[in-house]
Amino acid sequence: MSCGNPHAVPCAEVLDRVYEFIDGEVDGQRRHEIKEHLEECSPCLQEFGLEEAVKAIVKRSCSDPAPPDLRAKVLSHIAAARTELRGDV
After folding, report:
1. SS3 of 16-78
2. Does pTM surpass 0.70?
3. Relative to the CA of 29, which of 16, 19, 35, 58 has its CA 20 to 30 Å away?
4. CA nearest to 1, candidates 82, 74, 77
5. Distance, C-alpha 29 to centroid of its chain
6. How far apart are CA 84 and CA 78, in angstroms?
7. Binning pLDDT at 50, 70 and 90, where does residue 32 land?
C-alpha cells in the first residue's frame, strides 16, 4: 500500500509498526516519523484507522490482556500476512 509519494519512512515500515505505534511502544523519534507519514499518506492513514478500530473492538471484547507470547505470535502472523500480500515472499 502506498500513495506513490516518497516518504522518510516507507509505507511498509509504517504498516509493520502500526500496532506498536497505537500501543505507544515506539520511541519519540520513531513516533514522530510515523505520525508525519500518516499525515502525508492517506492510504496508510486509512489502514491505520482500520487497525485502530479493530484494536478498540478487541479491547472492549476482552477483559484480560493477552499473554506476551500470544501477542508476539499474533504480531508475527500479521507481519507474515502483510509480507505475503505485498508479494515479498
Report:
1. HCHHHHHCCCCCHHHHHHHHHHHHHCHHHHHHHHHHHHHHHHHHHHCCCCCCHHHHHHHHHHH
2. no
3. 58
4. 82
5. 16
6. 10
7. very high
